[in-house]
Design goal:
Elements (H helix, E strand, L loop, with lengths): L1 H12 L2 E2 L6 E2 L4 E5 L11 E5 L3 H33 L22 E2 L6 E2 L5 E3 L9 E3 L3 H29 L37 E2 L6 E2 L1 H5 L14 E2 L6 E2 L5 H36 L15 H19 L5 H16 L11 H13 L1 H4 L3 H21 L3 H9 L1 E2 L2 H9 L1 H6 L6 H10 L3 E6 L10 E6 L4 E6 L10 H7 L3 E5 L6 E5 H23 L3 E7 L1 H15 L14 E6 L7 H6 L4 E6 L9 H17 L1 H16 L36 H4 L17 E8 L2 E7 L21 H13 L42 E3 L6 E3 L5 E5 L4 E6 L1 H4 L4 H5 L1 H14 L1
Parallel strand pairs: 16-19, 19-20, 20-21, 21-22
Antiparallel strand pairs: 1-2, 3-4, 5-6, 7-8, 9-10, 11-12, 13-23, 14-15, 15-16, 17-18, 22-23, 24-25, 26-27
Helix pairs in contact: 5-16, 10-19, 12-22, 15-16, 16-17
Length: 863
């Protein structure tokens, strides 16, 4: 009984009530059952169900799950439809339930399209080929996948279109925006637009922006290389689009560079147009009322740059002046280092030749590839002895220039010579001054008015110029400056060295010419710049004179040709072409021979004596190279002899030289007047210096010549004469290595030569020079050998120690011709004369000396 009671009590304690049938069962016949959330009232989720009611409970749970799933799917369908309507801006509302709809596993993730709660097994990132930040976590439903793909594609398309818009602005593809398009708006994306890298604050994943298209990019995609990450300051992927240099992506960099270049070109065109308008407006205002145009004023502001420039000049000048105070070895060392530093391997010639010839050699080497092909030793030897041979040939035929000018040329008309002198200030001197105020000062002194100019700006193919007007003579002169390395910052040199012959033909095909390519480009640019100004002057009845020195003279020649024979835009208006004339001083060879002859009616060129610039062309340079090679081959023995002389003098520690002869009695008490039989050169003598033909490898028809009428100023027995000669005369087609080859090119030298030619009056008192070949071995003044001062004493070098006295014409040594005196009867202000002529006494005055003293005594007694 006790055991039965105990079992009964235990049964009452563990009985459970079935939720469905409300009967009590023991634990063996009633088990707990988990219902889905919301299936039972009062949020009951766990209850006991008997074995009999368990199928019914499972059916209730399944029905509740199906109902809940349908509800969630209906909600998800509504979310999908809303996403399709909203587009890329749709944001899903996730479900409140924490169980996966597929497997009832607790999860915190959800589909970003429909909002269904999903576990990691039933969710995926789609589309897989998009960037990480542009992929969505979606369910396996096809609509959600399609939406994710469409959204990623749309975002990519929007970013691409946005970047393409600003790229089009860079490339000026949008007509309304043009070059000055709006700056790109920087997008604030979370991932790279190219590789999809998600931006963080860690190095290597920082966000950068392209200032061209505005895209958000990583560092590697911005520049295309990883090296720019190390040194951002020196990153080459930069462009100055606006006010400062900014980083540009590799795709926009070519467009940005094109935009920067286009902007620079546009601004240049605008600036040039403003300048053109300013020039034309000043000229028009001057023609209306000359007093209304103000004069140029001086700028007296002393900048820091000018102070530093002056300080540097003082230092250089001080060093140069202190060099002579050094001892002889130090002075020679400084001089040698200076020459070698300035002239390279050819600086060793500085001990044998003059500095002027060294400068000429350096320029010739830069122009001629034929000279550069010569071995250095042959070049040094050839130039050394060729200059001596040319000097001897010229002095053996002192009147050959006059004979040749009389045969093939004619005298210069006095009116033309006076016109050349009158225009020399405008053409050769005034344009080289730095400030317009200084140029204006010289112009006003000669009754010219500086109206407009571009003197402070010159560069390649853009030479400086100034416009002068004389209302009294109804003349406008355009002066074009020659080569000025400092003021043009080297731009004029690029124009000079662009020396390829180029053919130019007018648009109507009526006129053609072959010209120096660099100077032709400069003439075309200057014509377009001055076109409205020149037309205004021509239609107002002003005569146009285009002039210049050196490079300026060549540009003036081609510009005159364009104004007369150019196309419709370049030629002056119909009926006004004949008002353009030109004068060139030291004009280079710039046109072919046919054009040079055709320019005679309207252009005149002045060639001064030994000036090398008008003689520089392909033919003369090739001829010079062949002469140097031939002379080097023939001068081997003379070189060995001169080297031995240098070695001997070095062993004596450069001992001074002394005369080794006794002065002879005056062999010629009177000057050697013209017609003296002992020194007259037969006219039929054919001198080698003038008969050397141009190399056969040169196309004479394509070679360049001095344009127009050529006024050749040449030396005859120490004085200057002028003649109008053809452009193909042989002295103008050969380079002579002379110390005056560059000195005669200077503007002051040309002007002085014109004045000397004008003041020269031929008379019977002209002195005929003695030929070097007839001079013998010893100087007639000191009785010593001519080369007593020289270290090199070979026969080929003797002529460098010989010169002619301008008074008597005899050949003397350089030591006896250090004095300069004026010779009024020969119209020479300062000429080299020998010691005998410098201190010559009159025998008649010596004989009359007693009578002179007697007359003085008589005058004193009477007083």
């Amino acid at each position: 009984a006790d055991d039965g009671l105990n079992r009964f009590l235990q049964t009452l304690t563990f009985l459970q009530e079935c939720l469905l049938c409300n009967r009590h069962f023991c634990s063996e016949h009633a088990q707990p059952f988990d219902f889905p959330a919301g299936a039972l009232p009062d949020n009951v989720s766990r209850a006991y169900i008997c074995i009999t009611c368990r199928p019914q409970a499972e059916h209730i749970a399944a029905d509740h799950k199906d109902c809940l799933r349908q509800t969630r799917q209906i909600r998800a369908l509504a979310q999908r439809q809303k996403a399709l309507q909203t587009g890329c801006h749709h944001q899903s509302r996730p479900e409140t339930t924490r169980f996966c709809i597929e497997c009832d596993v607790a999860s915190s993730g959800s589909c970003e399209v429909c909002g269904l709660t999903l576990c990691p097994l039933h969710a995926e990132l789609h589309p897989p080929d998009a960037g990480k930040a542009r992929r969505l976590s979606v369910c396996f439903d096809s609509e959600c996948r399609s939406y994710a793909s469409a959204r990623a594609a749309a975002c990519t398309a929007v970013r691409t279109a946005r970047a393409g818009f600003y790229s089009a602005c860079l490339s000026a593809a949008t007509p309304r925006l043009g070059i000055s398009g709006p700056p790109a708006t920087l997008e604030e994306a979370v991932d790279c637009a190219v590789c999809g890298l998600v931006f963080t604050k860690l190095p290597g994943s920082l966000r950068h922006h392209c200032r061209g298209c505005g895209r958000s990019l990583c560092a590697v995609c911005l520049c295309g290389v990883a090296g720019c990450l190390v040194n951002v300051a020196r990153c080459p992927h930069k462009a100055r689009l606006y006010d400062k240099e900014e980083r540009i992506c590799k795709d926009c960099l070519p467009l940005a560079a094109a935009r920067v270049q286009a902007k620079a070109v546009t601004m240049g065109i605008v600036d040039i147009a403003c300048q053109f308008a300013e020039h034309c407006l000043r000229v028009s205002a001057f023609l209306d009322d000359p007093a209304a145009v103000p004069l140029y004023e001086a700028n007296n502001v002393d900048t820091v740059q000018e102070k530093l420039w002056r300080a540097g000049g003082f230092a250089v000048e001080g060093a140069r002046r202190a060099a002579p105070l050094l001892s002889l070895p130090w002075a020679l060392g400084v001089r040698a280092v200076d020459v070698v530093w300035n002239y390279g391997q050819y600086g060793l010639l500085g001990f044998l030749l003059r500095e002027e010839i060294m400068q000429g050699i350096k320029t010739l080497l830069s122009l001629s590839s034929a000279l550069q092909d010569i071995p250095p030793r042959d070049l040094v030897v050839g130039i050394l002895y060729l200059s001596a041979e040319q000097r001897k040939a010229l002095r053996d035929a002192p009147e050959e220039n006059r004979r040749l000018a009389s045969q093939v040329g004619k005298p210069v008309p006095p009116d033309l010579l006076q016109a050349l002198i009158s225009m020399a200030l405008i053409g050769t001197y005034a344009p080289y001054h730095e400030t317009p105020c200084e140029v204006q000062r010289f112009a006003l002194q000669q009754n010219w008015r500086l109206v407009t100019e571009r003197l402070c700006e010159s560069w390649k193919h853009k030479p400086a110029w100034a416009l002068f007007i004389s209302c009294e003579h109804r003349t406008a002169a355009i002066s074009i400056r020659g080569t000025d390395v400092e003021q043009s910052r080297g731009g004029d040199l690029f124009t000079d060295f662009d020396a390829v012959p180029a053919k130019y033909e007018t648009s109507d095909g009526c006129a053609t010419l072959v010209a120096h390519s660099g100077i032709l480009a400069a003439a075309l640019a200057l014509e377009s710049e001055l076109r409205p100004t020149l037309r205004t002057l021509a239609t107002s009845g002003y005569r146009l004179i285009l002039t210049g020195h050196s490079l300026g003279g060549a540009v003036a020649a081609l510009l005159t040709w364009l104004l007369r024979h150019g196309t419709g835009g370049e030629r002056l208006p119909l009926g006004f072409e004949g008002q353009a004339f030109g004068i060139g001083y030291s004009t280079p060879s710039v046109v072919d021979r046919k054009t040079a002859e055709e320019m005679k009616p309207f252009f005149t060129s002045v060639v001064n004596s030994m000036d090398v610039v008008p003689r520089l062309c392909k033919g003369t340079l090739m001829q010079l190279s062949s002469e140097i090679r031939a002379c080097a081959e023939e001068s081997g023995a003379a070189l060995d002899e001169d080297v031995q002389h240098y070695v001997e003098r070095l062993t004596t520690v450069w001992a001074p030289r002394f005369r080794d002869g006794t002065p002879l009695r005056d062999p010629n008490p009177k000057p050697r007047e013209r017609g003296h039989s002992g020194s007259q050169v037969p006219e039929e003598r054919d001198q080698e210096v003038w008969t050397h033909e141009i190399s056969e490898n040169v196309d004479v028809m394509q070679d360049l010549y001095v344009p127009g009428n050529v006024v050749w100023i040449h030396r005859v027995c120490g004085h200057l004469e002028a003649a109008l000669v053809p452009c193909g005369i042989k002295p103008l087609r050969r380079l002579v290595l002379d110390k005056r080859m560059f000195a005669d090119h200077a503007s002051q030298s040309v002007y002085q030569a014109l004045l000397a030619t004008q003041s020269r009056q031929p008379s019977r008192s002209d002195v005929t020079w003695q030929r070097f070949a007839d001079a013998g071995e010893r100087c007639p003044c000191c009785g010593s050998r001519y080369e007593w001062m020289n270290t090199a004493r070979s026969g080929r070098m003797r002529c460098h120690a010989m010169t002619n006295c301008r008074k008597c014409g005899l050949v003397v040594c350089l030591g006896c011709a250090n004095t300069r005196r004026s010779i009024p009867e020969l119209c020479l202000e300062s000429a080299r004369v020998c010691d005998r002529c410098a201190w010559r006494c009159d025998d008649r005055s010596l004989q009359a000396l007693p009578a002179i003293f007697h007359s003085l005594a008589a005058q004193n007694s009477q007083s």
